[in-house]
Design a protein that fits this description.
The chain contains 16 helices and twelve strands. The chain is α+β, with helices and mostly antiparallel strands. Strand 4 and strand 5 form a beta hairpin.
Length: 562
């Protein structure tokens, strides 16, 4: 013991040096040192350790890669070298990637689920369409690397990735637009069963290795980070018999959902403003034809067709608001205004036109009128529901159906020709409705950056504008040149002339019962008009009277058009 204590006193300097170094190591954080493994999960995973807080690693902070990515895919070679799936003949196309990243107990590793949608894959795209592959894997964020494989999953199985997609307005509105404007559910089921990807899942392993990088954000992106995914997709066969198809390069950039959200909100504001303008135009037209004679000149089919169009738009916007919860208020507002347009103003105008064209029978009771009103409402809602079934059955012909629906001015043109009506519609109503009705289809099928992600079709938009422009032009010319200006006189039916010859020697009343002043019938002029029942009136008096009622002021008999 004496010897040991002596040695300990001699080594006092070394003792204090060792204690000082040990205490320094305990108190000073090891920033640049590699952390020790705290519970290795498997052999070779020494760097993977369990730790609750991931924010203490300085520059190696994790990136949240959850989001939607838009980009392209392409084969490095010009063509696909595989013979297993000859349908893969296109060399490049567009792609959409949906990723959901979830932290795990293993520090440095996030669990990733998602969907990759490949467009423009097959040569016979009209029969099959694009490819959708479910994937899952890991995101090793210290190295910014993504490793995922294909996962077919069970039908109807919900997971966190499905929950994210159901709350993502970018994805949900894209699905909604594809259901309404592009593909029907029945076509999608058929295409899925006949798609080469259906067989590829049985014979191929799909593996994707990608690198994640952060891109510089601009002012339009706000405070949210944007990321770029660049990787390689390989497909070795299950039976080790080569690759199913050549390696495929993926490049995609995250989408700023807020910008996309603002586009959808701006669209709903546009629809709301258009609906408000249509209400003002309807009020102007109802004031223009506020008499029985004026309302009888308006085609009930024209107003009914516009009411059905507004009812469809109300249902579509309401459905979009229900699907996308974050945009419910915006789409519900647009749907409400469309509901007001068709259910209050257009239906009210429809009833006024029906009442003006309905013959009045003496002694007719309320039961008869209510029965006829029930028939009118039944026809309207029957056509509304029947149109939904027709659009579902003939979904591939949606654009020709839209052209047919936008022929709502044609019934009024035909009514003007048959009845020889004088100025049934106000010119402001014709021009305003034509322009406002074009706003929604031109945005959906003509705007290259619309929020529904529908490819623009300029030819169809030009055809629609020309088609409805011709209808509006014919109506305006009928207003100023006469309702039958384009009909040859040889085929026109015989028209009653209010300035016909009459026997001046016969005893006719020479007083106009409208203005109660005398009429000079001794000289033939355009100041005197004669009805089919041989009653005389001043020309101006009778024309103003016929704008209110198409019946003789004296005997109440019906009058032909002037």
């Amino acid at each position: 013991m004496g010897f040991l204590s002596c040695c300990w006193r001699k080594l006092g300097f070394v003792k204090w040096l060792v204690l000082l170094c040990f205490g320094f190591l305990l108190l000073r954080p090891a920033v640049g040192l590699r952390p020790l493994r705290e519970r290795a999960r498997s052999w070779g995973d020494e760097w993977l350790f369990v730790k609750k807080d991931e924010s203490d690693l300085g520059p190696f902070s994790p990136w949240n890669i959850t989001g939607t990515y838009r980009g392209t895919w392409k084969f490095p070679d010009s063509t696909n070298s595989s013979s297993k799936f000859p349908e893969f003949r296109k060399s490049n196309g567009n792609s959409i990637i949906e990723l959901v990243s979830t932290p795990t107990k293993i520090n440095g590793v996030h669990y990733v689920q998602g969907v990759i949608i490949f467009h423009d894959v097959f040569d016979h795209e009209s029969n099959v369409g694009g490819v959708q592959i479910r994937v899952e894997g890991v995101y090793i964020w210290p190295f910014r690397q993504l490793r995922i494989v294909a996962n077919s999953g069970k039908e109807g199985e919900m997971n966190q990735e499905d929950d994210y997609i159901l709350s993502n307005p970018y994805h949900m509105l894209g699905v909604f637009s594809s259901q309404v404007f592009q593909d029907s559910p029945r076509d999608k089921i058929w295409r899925k069963k006949h798609s080469p990807i259906y067989e590829m899942e049985k014979h191929c392993n799909i593996e994707i290795a990608a690198q994640i990088s952060r891109i510089s954000s601009n002012q339009n992106d706000g405070e949210h980070d944007r990321y770029h995914v660049e990787g390689l997709m390989e497909s070795p066969a299950v039976d080790d018999d080569g690759d199913c198809f050549s390696p495929l390069l993926l490049n995609a950039t995250s989408v700023n959902v807020e910008v996309y959200y603002n586009k959808a909100v701006n669209y709903t504001l546009m629809v709301t403003f258009v609906s408000f303008l249509q209400v003002l135009l309807l009020i102007r037209q109802m004031e223009h034809s506020n008499t029985q004679s004026g309302a009888a000149k308006v085609s009930i089919l024209m107003i009914g067709q516009q009411a059905i169009m507004d009812a469809y738009l109300c249902l579509i916007h309401l459905t979009a608001g229900i699907l996308v919860e974050s945009l419910f208020n915006a789409f519900a507002t647009a749907a409400f205004f469309k509901f007001v347009v068709f259910s209050i103003f257009e239906m009210r105008y429809l009833l006024a036109i029906w009442k003006a064209n309905r013959p009045m029978n003496n002694g007719e009771g309320w039961e008869t009128m209510r029965r006829e009103l029930s028939v009118l409402y039944s026809r309207f809602y029957g056509i509304l529901l029947g149109g939904i079934l027709i659009m579902y059955e003939f979904h591939n012909f949606l654009r020709p159906i839209l052209l047919l629906m936008y022929s709502f001015w044609i019934p009024q043109i035909i009514t003007n020709v048959i009845r020889d009506s004088r100025k049934p519609l106000h010119p402001h109503y014709v021009l305003g409705v034509t322009v406002t009705r074009l706003a929604i289809p031109l945005y959906i099928f003509g705007c290259p950056n619309n929020f529904m992600r529908i490819e623009p079709d300029k030819n169809w938009c030009i055809c629609l504008c020309i088609f409805i422009g011709i209808q509006a032009s014919v109506l305006l010319l009928q207003h100023y040149l006469g309702s039958r200006w384009f009909i040859p006189r040889q085929i026109l039916p015989e028209k009653y002339s209010y300035f016909r010859r009459f026997d001046q020697q016969s005893n006719h009343a020479t007083d106009c019962v409208i203005c109660m002043t005398s009429i000079d019938i001794t000289q033939r002029s355009n100041d005197c008009m004669v009805t089919p029942c041989d009653h005389f009136f001043h020309s101006g008096c009778l024309q103003r009277w016929m704008d209110i009622k198409m019946e003789c002021p004296t005997c109440r008999r019906s009058l032909p058009p002037a």
